[in-house]
Specification:
Keywords: Membrane, Transmembrane, Transmembrane helix. By secondary structure, the protein is mainly alpha-helical. It has one domain. Helix content is about 75%, strand content about 0%. The protein has three helices and no strands. The relative contact order is 0.05. The model has no long low-confidence stretch (mean pLDDT about 75).
Length: about 70
């Protein structure tokens, strides 16, 4: 219990240092900004794991089923 005050003081100092750089804004991010952030990672994962072929296979399967 004696170290609790020291840890609290260190954490508080860290929060003040973080707040000096602008901190976090509360609220939500605009959907277009969120999309722009996620899209490069989604493309990378699609290419890296062969997801594009899986999408094409599923699309062609659905096309065949709808064509019946």
């Amino acid at each position: 219990m004696t170290g609790t005050a020291a840890r609290t003081a260190i954490r508080t100092r860290g929060r003040r240092a973080f707040a000096a750089f602008g901190g976090r804004r509360s609220g939500t991010r605009h959907p277009l900004v969120a999309t722009a952030m996620v899209l490069p990672l989604a493309v990378l994962l699609t290419v890296a794991f062969g997801g594009w072929e899986a999408v094409l296979t599923q699309a062609s399967s659905v096309g065949v089923m709808l064509g019946r």
